Amino acid sequence: MDEILEILSNDARISPQEVSKLTGKSVDAVKKAITKYEKSGVIVKYKTVINHDLARDSNSFVRALIEVSVAPQKDVGFDHIAERIYSFPEVTSCYLVSGAYDLLLVVEGENIKTVSNFIASKLSPMEQVRGTSTHFLLQKYKEDGQILKKKARGKRLNISY
């Protein structure tokens, strides 16, 4: 990966001046490269990783991984059904994967019932969907390379004899 992209993927808030210092390229060259990546779609979005457990009541937010087995359509393969599925607002990520299932979805909702209703009323009834397997996330430790929950260091008393 290009070093500018690598730096931005680790810290999207870094200035072109700082990227210039790290890469040895001129500030103008860095700015041009970033603009080019944005216009061409290489850089799709700048993202903040949020620890939702700290930002809001974790009882009012549920995230699930849903494995979906689908019947691909002739001449369009998995793309058409994937597009229909990822268009739902509950679906935050959609991946074509190898293995027992075809698609892996990340779905978010206010509670388990909301996610369950999405599966029962929107996802499962779709003609190409053959089956689903749902895994509710119980604890998130690391996301996008960032550790969210630092290990608490035990405060042990020093004992000497």
Q: Can I get a quick summary?
A:
The chain has 161 residues and is of the alpha+beta class. The chain has helices at residues 3-10, 16-23, 27-40, 52-55, 79-86, 112-123; strands spanning 62-70, 91-96, 103-109, 129-136, 142-143, 146-147.
Index terms:
alpha+beta; two-stranded antiparallel sheet; Alpha-Beta Plaits; 161 residues
Can you tell me about this structure?
By secondary structure, the protein is α+β, with helices and mostly antiparallel strands. It has two domains: 3-40, no CATH class; 57-140, 2-Layer Sandwich (Alpha-Beta Plaits), CATH 3.30.70.920. The protein is 34% helix and 21% strand. The chain is built from six helices and six strands, in the order H-H-H-H-E-H-E-E-H-E-E-E. The radius of gyration is 21 Å and the shape is flat.
How are the SSEs placed, and which strands pair?
Blueprint: H1 3-10, H2 16-23, H3 27-40, H4 52-55, E1 62-70, H5 79-86, E2 91-96, E3 103-109, H6 112-123, E4 129-136, E5 142-143, E6 146-147
Antiparallel strand pairs: 1-3, 1-4, 2-3, 5-6
- SS class: alpha+beta
Tell me the span between the first and last alpha carbons.
56 Å
- Sequence of secondary-structure elements: HHHHEHEEHEEE
Task: Output the strand order for the largest sheet.
Answer: 2-3-1-4
Largest sheet: 4 strands, antiparallel
User: Helical percent range?
Assistant: 25-40%
Radius of gyration: 21 Å
Q: Averaging pLDDT over every residue, what do you get?
A: 89
Shape: flat
Tell me the CATH topology of the largest domain: Alpha-Beta Plaits
**Count of spatially separate domains:** 2
CATH architecture of the largest domain: 2-Layer Sandwich
Give the uncertain stretches in residue-range form.
none
Q: Output the CATH homologous superfamily of the largest domain.
A: Lrp/AsnC effector binding domain/regulation of amino acid metabolism (RAM) domain
Number of helical runs? 6
What is the class of the largest domain in the CATH system? Answer: Alpha Beta
